Amino acid sequence: MGFIAAFSMSTAAIFFAEMGDKTQLVAMSLATRYRVVTVLLGITVATAAVHGASVLIAEVLGMAIPTDWATLAAGVAFLVFGVWTLIGDELTEKDEARAASRRISSPLMTVCAVFFVAELGDKTMLTTITIGTQYDWFPVWIGSTVGMVLADGIGIALGAALGKRLPERAVQIGAAALFFLAGGALLLQGVRMVAV
Questions:
Q1: Which are the contacts of 74, defined by CB distance < 8 A and separation ≥ 6?
Q2: Is the distance from CB of 47 to CB of 119 less than 8 angstroms?
Q3: Which pLDDT does position 5 carry in this prediction?
């Protein structure tokens, strides 16, 4: 049951965190230059690497911080992620040009390198670290990678099909609401743990 809970939580959280995120825009941009299969494979490899590092960081933090305080910190972090989601992450023309200019001989390696760099320090990386302090590292790593690939895959497909007609603000509000709910639940749980 612990595996399923951690996998489900990390998949859902990362899926919603990635909606409208700058790395999703990078994925859409890469899909205009390379085959969709190449982009999805590159995103998967890069995400697995970045989120692998994230769960390692979470394991270290989890050992260093008492569980009740880690739960409170996770609740606060989720509330911050909700605000961050509402404010949005924008990919400037400069960022897009820089990402496009990072060419390596192999399209797959180009996608991996661009997405890896774009994902470092991103909201989804920080969300993975936050969830990793609450659950075992392996299901969080797998779930966060699956959530990221699903969100980017859907984003690429919808972006290609619908272009600018996507209701980006509605997606942001829905994702932020989920972060607020999860943050509130974690805060309540953390307060109860500290009070005991």
A1: 130, 131, 133, 134, 186, 190
A2: yes
A3: 93
SS (H, E, C) the chain: CHHHHHHHHHHHHHHHHHCCCHHHHHHHHHHCCCCHHHHHHHHHHHHHHHHHHHHHHHHHHHHHCCHHHHHHHHHHHHHHHHHHHHHCCCCCHHHHHHHHHCCCCCHHHHHHHHHHHHHCCCHHHHHHHHHHCCCCHHHHHHHHHHHHHHHHHHHHHHHHHHHHHCCHHHHHHHHHHHHHHHHHHHHHHHHHHHHC
Residues 6 or more apart whose Cβ sits within 8 Å of residue 59: 132, 137
Spatial CA neighbour of 119 closest among 147, 138, 139, 93:
147
- Structure tokens given for 99: 């990402």
> Distance from first CA to last CA of the chain, Å, rounded?
25
Instruction: Compute the chain's Rg from CA coordinates.
Output: 17
What tokens were used for 73?
A: 């910190």
- pLDDT means per 10 residues in the chain (196 residues)? 90 88 76 82 94 90 68 71 68 52 71 83 85 92 96 77 58 66 73 74
For residues 51 and 128, the answer to whether their CB atoms sit within 8 Å is yes
